[in-house]
Amino acid sequence: MIGEDPTPSSAFGVEAIAMTMRFGAFTALDNVELKVKPGSFHALLGENGAGKSTLVKCIMGYYRPTEGDVLIAERERAISNPKDAHALGLGMVYQHFTLVPAMTVAENLVLARDDVPAVVNWAREKQELEAFLSRMPFRVPLDAKVSDISAGERQKCEILKQLYLKRRFLILDEPTSVLTPGEADEVLGMLRKMVEAGELTILMITHKFREVMAFADEVTILRRGKLAGRGKVSELTPDDMARMMIGAEQLTVQPARTGEAGTVKLEVEKLVALDDAGGTAVHELSLTVRAGEIVGIAGVSGNGQRQLVEVLSGQREAESGAVRVSGAPYSATREEMRRHKMSLLPEEPLKNACVGGMSVADNIALREFDRAPFARGGWWLNKSAFRADATTKINRYKIKTRTPDTPISALSGGNVQRAVLARELGHDVEVLIAANPCFGLDFAAVAQIHAEIMAARNRGAAVLLVSEDLDELLELSDRLVVMFHGQLVYETRASDADLTEIGRHMAGH
Amino acid sequence: MTSEAADPVDAAAIAPAADAGFLQRWGTEIEYILIPGAALVAALLVFGIFVALFGKNPLDLYWYMYYGAFGTWFSWQNTLSRAAPLILTALCTALPAQLGMVIIGGEGALLIGALAATSAALALQGMPPLVVQIAMVIAGMTGGGLWILLSGGLRQYRGVNETISSLLLVYIALAILNHLVEGAMRDPASLNKPSTREIGAANMIGTIPGTDVHWGLVFGLILAVASYILIFHTTFGFAARVAGGNIRAAKIVGLSVGKLILTVCFLAGACAGLAGMVEVAAVQGRTNANLAVGYGFTGILVAFLARQNPLAIIPVAILLGGINASGGLLQRRLGLPDASVFVLQGIIFISVLASDALYGRIGFLKGKS
């Protein structure tokens, strides 16, 4: 059946009918319907775990749905693997890049083809690529190495790759998560034009209402594997969409910002740190955070934020420079962390702050296990104290786990982060360092984490918040700084921050 | 958004406890017994084919293996005597494994431990036997401990892979041993087989009353139980498991990972060093190249079969000790080369390592439809 008709040359629609996908006893998709009209820009909204990825993976042939059919250009098609989907003109652009960094853009494009000849006639390929690019609205430097071009250009390459492969229906999975607001608008704007010209149909997975409002024609909203709503974007408000996404769930109310900044708690002076490859990631960075203040660090990922946080967390040694907490030199030892009441909420908590194979109770006790009541005489583990403390915190922080003894790796991302939150914020905090604490979490978890961070600030903690989410930074920060190429390049009060100005500095202009 | 692929697992984890059947609760534990057991059986079957190629009946083979290992009180004693050093050398791999380190140099620590214990005994000739024996234990454990500490230090301060360094240190240990027994420490009376002087019959640690099994077995049992307690019931073991499970998490809570690595390496080497001391003080009576019969290497196999659990090491060491013990009988009755039990050990090792891929993949143990 595949290959019977030539790949369509213009936009076509895709429909998923009565899609159900079960994994064992768990139903990831329950009788979901999705209709993407030909030549439209369709947004697929939903919280983490709502089934968005499962749905598109069923369409792309990565999963075989338990029930349901896929209609492509109004004809029922059996798509049993991604190759079938590609042959039908369906393409997918992932959140993370799939280009080979050490190769040039041209090489990456040619390499992606199914029919790469054993000997490539580069002169001819280049000519054809140039001809192809002249018809496209994007421009990318064909001879540049992928590792040398910016995130925005890489994302354009990913999209161009799909168009070069003659895919006319593109599925974009959170395509703007690694881009600055400016880059995101540029890329989506160009795609929008191609959709309007009738060359393309787009299905975009996202959680950013702003992008849905600005670029999408129609929206489908999923909640817990079920269709929660759909309609024309022009007839909906962000509030309507948010309600459909969350349902009746009660969100934690964030406390109001109270109190003024006090004395300097955390001082970073001329800090230099290297990345894993030995390049300078943090370049003579200086920064202070006062008690009762949230300092937000904005920046496109990969500008040294991670290495900065790693130095403050004891996961990386500084090359030079100094870190002081309450005036005393700080080198991230257990004793110092205790004395200064430091709390750390790193990004990807399962990778950075938890031991996946150990129980929820053990993970909650990581900071205190060598003291009473967890340790008798300082060395004998008191397992019942672990369990008792964990039970209290599981209830207080609404951690969904079967038992305190369940391995923490079996929990969902939000619940892992809640467990870390319980451990790190379950006691007095003087200094809090948080990095992308809400990345990939659902509304309820995000609201709870934001409330906890604000509460810690109000109690007088000095908070350093590193985030790739500008909305989060603007909402929580007192002061906002922009990090670019390992340095702080811009500072502003969050209350009078100018988004364009911040975006410009994030891009290094 | 790829995280959604993990949803089935999440759902299982937060499912109400009422759904959790027997298999769901004990599935993991059953796996830990079933999978290594199946790997062992598979290895025996492959070895049966190997033996059949020599024109022998595999059923005879299995019978003689059983008989030579566990068939009589005599074979039991032989088995237990061989299990003793295996328990200790297995701990040399199992303890660092808690930290996520793969140390395979127990053989080297055993040899250095034996040398150190012999030296202590020779230096203290004339002292009361108990004093000499205690000194031998201390010297053997310290010698072995420092030997593996070298691997730990290389890893901690120079970033050298501990697996490779510990393995290469085995050859250095063997070279040192040969150098000393053929040179400075050589007993002039040992002509064919260069050896050190005897430590003296009075200083030998002897056997457990009523048996021919030497006290090394008791040392092994005590250290295996002590290791289990250290790892699972003390704050030190907890910290080690945290660092072994996720070094980034250990660092973010300020644990001193370097100290843990060095301490654990020392303790691991001390266990293997004690095995060397036992071989000298209970079996050989002196140090010579006879000590390098591969107890250190078989210990690696024991530790992996026991999934690095110190308590599980005890039965596995007895099993492997039995296989070793049956080698003589296989040679006499079936005319198989003495080394054929090492072929079996090799097959077991490969099949156990390969079976690792099966964990969590056995459908009926997941307790789900």
Structural summary, described in words:
In chain A, a hairpin with a 3-residue loop joins strand 17 and strand 18. Chain A contains 17 helices and 22 strands. With 509 residues, chain A is an alpha/beta fold. Chain B is mainly alpha-helical and 369 residues long. In chain B, helix 5 runs parallel beside helix 7 and helix 6 crosses helix 7 (162-181). The interface between A and B is large, with 56 and 41 residues.
List keywords for this structure.
heterodimer; A: 509 residues; alpha/beta; six-stranded mixed sheet; 32% helix; 26% strand; globular; disordered N terminus; B: 369 residues; mainly alpha; 15 helices; 0% strand
Give a quick summary of the entry.
The complex is a heterodimer of chains A (509) and B (369). Chain A is 32% helix and 26% strand.
Strand content of chain A: 25-35%
Mean pLDDT of chain B: 88
Q: What separation lies between the terminal Cα atoms of chain B? A: 26 Å
Distance between the termini of chain A: 52 Å
Which percent range fits the helix content of chain B? Answer: over 70%
Topology:
The complex is a heterodimer of chains A (509) and B (369).
Chain A: E1 14-23, E2 26-36, E3 41-46, H1 52-60, E4 67-72, E5 75-77, H2 82-87, E6 90-93, H3 105-111, H4 122-134, H5 151-164, E7 169-173, H6 181-196, E8 201-206, H7 209-215, E9 218-223, E10 226-232, H8 238-246, E11 264-274, E12 280-290, E13 293-298, H9 305-313, E14 320-325, E15 328-329, H10 334-339, E16 342-345, H11 349-352, H12 360-364, E17 375-376, E18 380-381, H13 383-396, H14 413-425, E19 431-435, H15 443-458, E20 462-466, H16 470-476, E21 479-484, E22 487-493, H17 499-506
Parallel strand pairs in A: 3-8, 3-9, 6-7, 7-8, 13-20, 13-21, 16-19, 19-20
Antiparallel strand pairs in A: 1-2, 1-4, 4-5, 9-10, 11-12, 11-14, 14-15, 17-18, 21-22
Helix pairs in contact in A: 14-15
Chain B: H1 7-14, H2 22-53, H3 58-71, H4 73-98, H5 106-123, H6 129-158, H7 162-181, H8 216-233, H9 235-245, H10 247-252, H11 257-284, H12 295-305, H13 310-325, H14 327-334, H15 340-355
Helix pairs in contact in B: 2-3, 2-15, 3-4, 3-13, 3-14, 4-8, 4-11, 4-12, 4-13, 5-6, 5-7, 5-11, 5-12, 6-7, 6-11, 8-9, 8-11, 8-13, 9-11, 12-13, 12-15
